[in-house]
Design goal:
Blueprint (H helix, E strand, L loop, with lengths): L1 H6 L5 H10 L21 H31 L8 H23 L3 H39 L12 H8 L3 H14 L4 H14 L3 H12 L6 H17 L4 H14 L4 H11 L6 H4 L30 H14 L4 H13 L4 H13 L5 H15 L6 H14 L4 H11 L1 H7 L37
Helix pairs in contact: 3-4, 3-5, 4-5, 6-7, 7-8, 8-9, 9-10, 10-11, 11-12, 14-15, 15-16, 16-17, 17-18, 18-19
């Protein structure tokens, strides 16, 4: 074969190349496999293209990782992504894995190595996205029982050190502790109220206390319940400590104006209804105490001095409450006292029930107070001719107004025992005893029994 190739040296170069490409070389066995053809058309360019494709996919995965870290750093609650974010990122990763898979099928060992570089980060990202949510959903009950759950605790100011200093009588140190917490939580109502209480009650600095309450009221966007707490505290200081009746009344009227037909409005009306009069002693909150003559030896009297006690004129007392309610019809405390006088002193149960019904019909009454008044009506109905049926109607009203509530359950329990309650209000008949022999145990029942007193008269047979 080599000799033939040497004999071909004299051929032109083009003919020699044709012979080599055609494989027509003499001396080759006829059954030999065809010569291996090498395709070097791609060469290094094809290798560089595959590397570039893997590099682009890797950069995309790196961008996904950076995006995840950025989003996690922006979450203040420490929770994982929303379900929408997890689904979008997972679909993008699977799409990239599909593109990389097509590239891996046409490559060799180098392509497989670069494929691992892509598959491993993809798995890590998918686990990072879905594994915490899956574990939380499957094992939240068990892990929550051991760790206390993952509920976030709201940060609040810590005033226990201030309270401890106050109990020790170190009021200045307590104010310093409160100021320290207020620097962390500016405008905190609990701290301002505690500071005002120390200024007013312990240090007797009423202007400073009122200034703190005014500061709390002037804070913008303060919740309504916090504003109400500061207003009621300010009205209490003005009425009972500073004795400024017009200013205290103005604060209560402001509460009525800002919160109409609410529980706070009812409480403000109660305070307005019980404001002292215009005389100096009433404004200052002092009531004259008149000392009258009293029995000095109650133990020696027959009725232990009961006859000498002053007797209450219930007719005049009822008229006083009626006059008061004409001026302040929303004073529920006065109306309750009037109903008690009607029921207990005059035995006018229907009038007492009417007064309580007027309280229930007032708009904006708290549910807890309405339930208490219905129970009061049930107690009064048991003392009337209607008895159990009237009480049952009052308790059924509780169940119809507040179904699926603890008050409804309590009314149901009371309905089950109304029969016994009705019997307890039934007067017990008086049993009059007859005249019987006295000292029966000292009588001799038989003549055979020795008589210890022979001079005593014997019983006639």
């Amino acid at each position: 074969m080599l000799g033939e190739l040497r004999s071909l040296r004299g051929l032109p170069h083009a003919a020699e190349v044709n012979l080599l490409e055609s494989g027509d070389v003499r001396g080759r066995p006829p059954d030999a496999p065809p010569a291996i053809e090498r395709d070097c058309s791609g060469g290094p360019g094809r290798y560089v293209g595959g590397m570039l494709q893997f590099l682009i996919i890797g950069l995309i995965f790196l961008g996904c990782g950076v995006f995840l870290a950025h989003r996690m750093s922006k979450r203040d609650d420490g929770q994982m992504f929303e379900l929408r974010d997890r689904v979008i990122i997972s679909l993008a990763i699977f799409a990239l894995l599909g593109a990389a898979g097509r590239t891996l099928l046409g490559g060799g060992a180098a392509a497989a190595a670069f494929g691992l570089v892509i598959i491993i980060p993809a798995g890590v990202i998918l686990a990072f996205i879905w594994l915490p949510a899956a574990v939380e959903g499957l094992l939240s009950g068990l892990t929550g029982a051991m760790t206390g759950g993952n509920q976030q605790i709201e940060t609040k100011p810590f005033f226990y050190r201030a309270l401890a200093q106050r109990r020790k009588g170190r009021f200045s140190e307590a104010l310093v502790e409160i100021d320290t917490e207020l620097l962390k939580f500016p405008g905190n109502l609990e701290g301002l109220l505690l500071k005002a209480e120390i200024q007013a009650d312990d240090l007797k600095n009423l202007p400073a206390a009122m200034g703190l309450l005014e500061e709390a009221l002037q804070t913008p966007d303060r919740p309504r319940h916090e504003r109400l707490a500061a207003q009621f505290r300010l009205s209490e200081l003005l009425l009972h400590r500073v004795h400024d009746l017009p200013a205290g009344r103005a604060v209560l009227e402001q509460i009525l104006e800002e919160n109409p037909e609410t529980e706070a409005a009812h409480t403000a009306r109660q305070h307005l209804a019980h404001l002292p009069g215009a005389d100096a002693d009433a404004v200052n909150g002092r009531k004259k105490l008149v000392v009258v003559h009293h029995e000095t030896s109650l133990g020696l009297t027959e009725d232990l001095g009961a006859s000498s006690l002053p007797q209450e004129n219930w007719t005049e007392k009822a008229q006083e409450w009626v006059t008061h309610l004409e001026a302040h019809p929303n004073d529920w405390e006065a109306r309750e006292k009037l109903a008690t006088i009607y029921a207990d002193q005059f035995q006018r149960i229907p009038l007492a029930i009417d007064q309580i019904r007027l309280l229930i019909d007032q708009p904006g009454q708290p549910a807890k107070r309405i339930v208490g008044w219905f129970n009061r009506i049930a107690d009064l109905e048991l003392r009337t001719a209607a008895g159990v049926e009237g009480a049952r109607g009052a308790l059924e009203e509780i169940r119809s107004r507040y179904p699926d509530s603890p008050w409804s359950d309590q009314a149901a329990l009371r309905l089950a025992t109304l029969g016994r309650a009705g019997r307890s209000h039934t007067p017990t008949p008086t049993l009059k005893l007859g005249v019987y022999e006295q000292n029966i145990g000292l009588k001799r029942g038989s003549a055979e029994i020795p008589n210890p007193d022979p001079d005593a008269p014997t019983a006639s047979t």
